[in-house]
Structures are given as C-alpha cells and as structure tokens.
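not sure who needs this but someone in the group chat was asking about Glucosamine-6-phosphate deaminase from Amycolatopsis ultiminotia so here u go. i didnt clean anything up, its just raw.
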Amino acid sequence: MHAGRVLRAVLRAGRTARVMFAAAPSQSATLVAEDLDWASVEFFHMDEYIGLATHAPQGFANWLAENFVRYTPGAVFHRIDPAGAPEAEAARYEALLGSEPFDLVLLGLGINGHLAFNDPPDFADPRGVRVVMLDDTSRHQQVAEGHFETFDDVPETAVTVTIARLLNADVVIASIPGREKRTAVAQTLREPIGAMHPGTALRTHPNTTLYVDAEADPR
C-alpha cells in the first residue's frame, strides 16, 4: 500500500513520521491494515467544527479516534479542540504543526473540490490554521453523507488547516470514491489552477497521487 510504503521509509530512517489526515469515509481503510511501529508516528488532522458537544460523534477528532486511531496502538494523535476559544486554538494548533513538512498527507476531495474546510481557499495563505465560515455546499454534503439530520444542524464555522500548510509535505495521497465526486475530480484535473476549483491546488505539489474509484473517474 502506497501510504504504508511512505511511512516505512521514514521509520527505517530512524525518524518519527508526521502524518496529516482527513476525517472522512474516503479515508476509512487507508492505513488501518498496515503493520507499523505506530509508537513512532504522530497524527494531526485537518479540521474541526466549532460548537459541537465535546463527545459529539460528528466531531472529526472523535470520528478519527473511533474509526482509526484506536487501531494504531502507541501513535500520538494531536486533536484540534476549539471549544470556547476557537481563535486561540487555531493559533495553538498552528504552533504545534510548526514549519516542518509533513511526511505524508492523506486527504479527500469535497463535492465542490474543497480541501479541508478551505471554502474558498487562499493558496498562498500565510497562516497555517485559521477559523473559517463553512460554505453551504460543504454543509449540505455533511447532511447528504448522513453525518447530520438537517442543514441547520451542521455548524457554520470550523477551524481548518490551510491549503498552503497541507501541501507543505513530502507526499500527498488523495483517496476519492463515489459518483458524487466525479465533477470535482474532473475540475481538479482539467480546470485552470486557482481558487475557483480548490482541488487544483493538488497539481502544484510535485508528489501528489490521486486514487479514484470507477464511479468517481471522469473519463
């Protein structure tokens, strides 16, 4: 598996592997089956809603802890926790990320091509993490995927890692399943690079791989 190979190379070099990943169904099977020294892996995540109850299952950190981190014994998971002070948390998490490139970024693609919650994005954002308003399309996507019952249940704001910081990485792997992502994949691959189609930012990175299933393949 591609991601596993990347991490094994880092661990063989005697380093702690730094991984940034998305909380999304597309990532569910990305690394769980890998037999790695998880105690030498640090995980960060891309975004988190503002205003959810601490243990809400829709919280991205909670979802990752339940569906992924518990299968990686010994790994360190750095959670975004914006409760009460989102701006302060954005600054704290940005400092925690530092400026060192991630060894691996695992991400998906929103139905409008978004990366994390950068809607619309600034590809050259000087900040590494910031508080943002959620685009309506992103909020509708959360309902369509069954995470919330109604549009009004989806929080309006979130803390997100910016595109510039996400792409400060040695390797980027995007996993994109589902027919509903076909247009976003086509735009990512074919449209001019720019904020109108956020996924096009992936084409600015020299070591990005997209894994697209048959339903999402725009050919």
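also The radius of gyration is 16 Å. if thats useful
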